[in-house]
Design brief:
Rossmann fold, alpha/beta, about 40% helix
Length: about 220
């Protein structure tokens, strides 16, 4: 694993990015707000106090990788109700980001989004960042039949949907556990966010996505 030297990504021509806390800084509070809305939804649905709702939420996340599968398994609620409520955020923390757009533009090959968020949320975030046109496709929670990362079947669906070669793919994520299966599939993995302990399934760690992309060694144009 390398934290300081420029990453050697000359074998990469598929660029796969998580969305939340990856394409924008983790400390802008969007995921905190989203987790709070999940807890609020559980409170409204079950009538339980907030502390119990957060415990339920944590259990679903640990067991299923996200709250939605646990919710659907235990309660009579539609996915649309949940997704619309949780993602109804102002996104005022996100602005047009020309530096990120320029960093993405220098990447040779195809670029995709792979997120546990809803399709509408991904569209809004990419639009606010001003980078929607840089991506060929978005694989969201609805694309995965409501099965989130890190479930292996969801990676298989994403690979089939985008028609990508794993060995030529670099996957950027803020969640270490979501990189485990990607590594097993042969992808190059990059953990984005605050410095954290190394792990065998992580090839690179970076606290700054733009700097990482700008300094990486890339495939020469054909």
């Amino acid at each position: 694993m390398s934290r300081r030297a420029a990453a050697d990504l000359r074998h990469i021509d598929v660029w796969l990015f998580d969305l939340d806390d990856t394409l924008y800084p983790h400390d802008n509070g969007i995921m905190v707000e989203m987790r709070q809305r999940i807890a609020d939804f559980i409170v409204k649905l079950t009538g339980k106090p907030a502390d119990e709702a957060r415990t339920i939420q944590s259990g679903w996340f640990e067991t299923h990788g996200a709250a939605l599968p646990g919710l659907l398994a235990e309660h009579d609620v539609t996915p649309r109700e949940f997704l619309d409520y949780v993602h109804d955020l102002p996104l005022h923390q996100i602005d047009d980001h020309p530096e990120l757009d320029a960093a993405l533009a220098r990447l040779p090959g195809r670029r995709f989004i792979f997120t546990n968020g809803a399709a509408s949320h991904a569209e809004r975030v990419l639009g606010k960042l001003g980078i929607a046109g840089r991506f060929e496709g978005v694989f969201h929670i609805e694309s995965g039949d409501l099965t989130p990362k890190p479930h292996p079947a969801t990676y298989d669906r994403m690979i089939e949907a985008f028609g990508i070669a794993q060995a030529a793919t670099c996957f950027f994520e803020d969640s270490s556990k979501n990189l485990i299966h990607a590594h097993m599939l042969g992808m190059t993995t990059v953990l984005v966010g605050p410095e954290s302990a190394g792990a065998p399934h992580i090839d690179y760690v970076t606290p700054d996505l733009i700097d990482f992309l700008n300094t990486a060694r890339l495939k020469e144009p054909a």
